[in-house]
Queue: 4 jobs
Job 1
Amino acid sequence: MTSPLTSGLAPYQTASEEDLAAGRRALMGGGVAGQAAFIVDHGSGAVVVDTEGREYIDCTSQAWSLGIGYAHPRIAAAVAEQVYRYTHIRTGFETVPKLLLAKRLAELAPGDLKRVAFTLSGSDAIEGAMKLAMRNRDGASTFLSLWEGYHGRTFGTLAVSWPHPDNIFGRWMGPVVRVPAPYVYRNPFGEGMTAEECVDACIHFTRQAILHAVDGPIAGLIMEPFQGNGGMIEFPPSYHRKIRELCDEFGLVLIWDEIQTGFARMGAMFAADLYGVVPDIMVIGKGLGGGFPISAILVSERLRGFKPGDHSFTHAHFPPSMVAALATIDVIEAEGLIERCRQMGTYFTTRLRAMQARHPLMGDVRGPGLMIGIELVRDRDTKEPARKEAAWVVREGMRRGVIFGESKYLGLGNIVKIKPPFVITEPQADRVLAVLDELLTELETRGLPS
């Protein structure tokens, strides 16, 4: 297939400086990541190139969505063929891509999660999962969610996410009770506990919340099996099993948000496979589409489904995204990217932990797979978060050709994220680590620039 990069068939990729400036003036804020210091021209594998020809190793996979890398030819070919057939089909019509993708997801899904509903974004998929929980709990509307959890930015998903500053939308947000999660590095119950004691304390607290802190019946508990936006927090595996048992005991619908963790990111197709726990509802997205917008809700066969009109969107059945998702699954399997993610995750974390011994700013290194977070602290004993330092590492890293991720946004977090495409090479990983080493050394010897 001829590439528009070389064929002259891309008229919307060039513009005058005046046009670009006019576009910037017209854009309204509200995005979470600020403005990057360059304009993207193209990408390949784990590298993105700006309009000046400068290359950057992308450790964000563009919001963790390009697990198989930029511009994979198999995705491009599948989508190019599809758009010449049709681009938009209403949700009430059947198409081969929709039926094939539903079949493939039901085959891949763990346990009895064999029914599928499609959406375009993670937030509306999460809200769909919440609606299903309410349908199956006879209209109960209260949810439990975890401290530092993140599930989106619609009214419903803001309610179950970590509290956002300057949030004026509370009157439109549903009832939620947040419970502590076993963030072992920062134990919510104080220092001195083992990881398993932290797990048990969190389970006990959640049980007491169910019994005493909620007015009326609870629809379900919603959680990420590995918290991404809130701090790259991995839970001890026993927590997943015990929270599953707790939900079973009280008849709560357990919803897992695997929008970030699904499709090989943690060295398994899903975190549910990694931890051996099956939720009642699983929400997937991001890495599923190979860069195209698509999310889905995987639902237990034991649960009642939607009623007509409960959760329908004009573009929820978007055939180009569906063929992109089918191609993405094929690429993950054909190129052995689950195993490669495990290998490269070990490659990174082994070297990061060696770096940790000589960098006091590195409080903790977390994985697994290419779901890597480095928690920066100003003092290892007090664990004071090094938020300004983390923000500086992300800004300065981009200037040096590496795009690191950050937790939360606008300097609220102290985690540096390394979550590149699974196709990142060892020499590229070495460059990422060298830049991080340089930046931490500068901070530790000179302090933050004034």
Job 2
Amino acid sequence: MKTPNHSQANILKVLEQTKKPLSAQEIWAEIQKQGQKIGVATVYRNLESLKIKGLIQIRTVHNQAIYSLVSEKQNFATCLQCGERTPLGISLAQSVEAPTLQSQAFEVYYHTLEVFGLCSPCQERSP
């Protein structure tokens, strides 16, 4: 696997520092704040490359792609209204991933389990 280029290293650094999933626009803004000159299109291209290398994962929340480091191995319950994420504390990796995919010669970079609904505060605000 190729090592990350300078732009990719900057993206990984931003995701590591913020410790939360970010959109491509948010990543670009953080890189700009650090004084790095990089275009938004370059961020998108590098995010795709990092995803293919298995270094980041992508999810969609509120019709927006958000990116996080693959080292984030928790699974989440995500509120559809406010986007708040709550760790579930469970993993399917050992029970599903290993026996099924290893027999199919499939290299797994990461897995996700996400439950969607409304958190308590949003339930109270909903009509």
Job 3
Amino acid sequence: MIPEAELVRKEFTVCEIDFPESITLTKNSLLRWCSLSLGLISKNETRDKAFLVLDALFTLLFTKKQPPTTLDIQSQIKSKTKVEMSEKLIRFHLNKLIELGILERKTNKYYINPSPNSEKRNSLAESYSAWVAKQIEAEMTKTKNALEKLQAKYEK
């Protein structure tokens, strides 16, 4: 392992993905596309557990207008699909959204982490712009600075 590897605090997956109009025709295709785009799943993902968790989360947050607990999500999945899912697996998938900054947990309930400058406190898109894009821009600035310094070292 190289010594700088211990400096890594977080990883972002940035994918360049086509967005054909057909993706917008169904909720499931949009859910899969967004999951792939956010790096929540890999392009070769065959398991559907992440989708079940996200579908239940978004159903409870946006359709039923209630911040869910892991037990609420577990119950929603079971009632809709008859699939038994452990709380640990549910938390694993939710933690990915928390790590991105899009979701936050308060008193065992999950909420959209609102953009500080937004009137739409429950907007996924604005949360993404505020938290994920901000972090990526900061990392790009650091990398640009490092590349400039590296080039200068070679030009001496």
Job 4
Amino acid sequence: MKKRHRLTTIVWTIAIAAVAIGAVIQLAFNWRTVLDTKPPEFSPKNMLQALWHQYKFDYLEPGTLRSLDKQRDNVTTSEGQSYSMMRAVWMDDKTTFDQAWQWTKDNIQRRGDFLIAWIFGEREDGTYGILTDRGGYNTASDADVDISVALLFASKRWNEPTYYGDAIVLIRSIWEREVVEVLGRPYLAANNVEKTLPKQVIILNPSYFAPYAYKIFKEVDPSHDWLGVAATSYEVAKASMVSPLDKESSAHLPPDWVGIDRTTGELVAVPQPTSLTTNYSYDALRTAWRFALDWQWNGDPRAKDVLKEMSFLAEEWRKKGYIGSSYSHDGTELLRTESPAMYGGSLGYFMVEEPRLAADVYSRTLERLYDPNMSKWREPLSYYDDNWAWFGVALYHGELRNIYAEE
């Protein structure tokens, strides 16, 4: 009996040991599998989607989806609505696109000419509407152009002809109300009042110029000379950088604002007193992005010629390791602070003219702003910084498709 009991004990011991060894082997295999499994590769598209989702939470009003500039008393600008619509169509977010466009039509689309009034918010009496006391019923031509492009993209992406019809009405009105003629040639003015006001100098904003858009407009509105608008846009952008304007010399940076003489066609600083300066700052930072997008989509050498003038940015980066958020037209640094929007806009220059530097600029600025573990910006960005950092990231990764040109 003792011998049999001893044998049984030995058998059970061996069995238990075998199970234990098997468990250890399986555990080791599982851990090896975990260790050998590589994390999914970084996806720019996922990054852009995550940032878009966070932006909607931070800056789109629940229920209405109007864009809120929280740094300016929650006003809504036509620019802000255009950015929401552009981002939504690129991100294939039809629900947000439809709500943003519906709010725009209901609240800030002008009834007479269908252009978009530029600013909406809380009035002194506590009601909400277009802020007419701040010139809010006037237009900003960049927003009208961007919304038109977004609508054309939406018509193609989601196969809905109503978007196309809305775009055509808006595009024709841009021509009638915002394109001015100087010495027989068409120029995109900064707003709708430049065409009708009896003044010698017409205000232009080079960062509003979007040659890629006008090439699309020519296809859908062939009765107007949109390619002529593209041509004058290249010319004004380049000439405004080369000219000293109101300074002794020029650093060849695009100005926030510039004027064109109705009679001579000469580019001049906007007559003072006004807050419209020739600085490379809040407005002008978008110029490089727009011409780089034109280069990406169309390879137009005129776009590259414009960007080539902006070599000051490369010199500044090599010398200082940063780009300030504001410069005088002669290159004097006005604000030492750095701005995500400045990097998002200026990155277009580096991508076309200095691709190696572009990788350095991107990795040390915009990429570092993003937290891949939390799938959002490491620190909250302002409305404007959020938009232009996003546009810069999307441009850098080639995620801004010309949807209208796709089959």
